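seq as requested:
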Amino acid sequence: MSDNESYDDGYEDHGDQDSAVITEKKKKVKRPNLYKVVLHNDHYTTMEFVVAVLINIFHLEHSKAFQVMMHVHKKGVGVAGIYSYEIAETKAHRVMNLAREQKFPLRCSVEPE
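struct tokens:
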């Protein structure tokens, strides 16, 4: 190279220092949106079955399961749990499949929180 030409290799010359600093930007991880699993009242599904579903699928204690079941019975709908979308959908499908096996018309839906 001649004296008038320059060479840029992307590194800054810091004299005798033989180090380079590489900075990495941290990516922010967004929490997943949450969804409610909602049970809908009907006049055929037994209260005992709904309590059993809440205990076995949603892992609620008996007293809490009974409370949720009574809310569904009196108000027409009730929230069984709040989860990420995939988990909410899986639990709703499990409820519906179990209800159909037992010949109950219990409905379960997934709604954004």
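The helical segments are 47-56, 62-75, 85-101.
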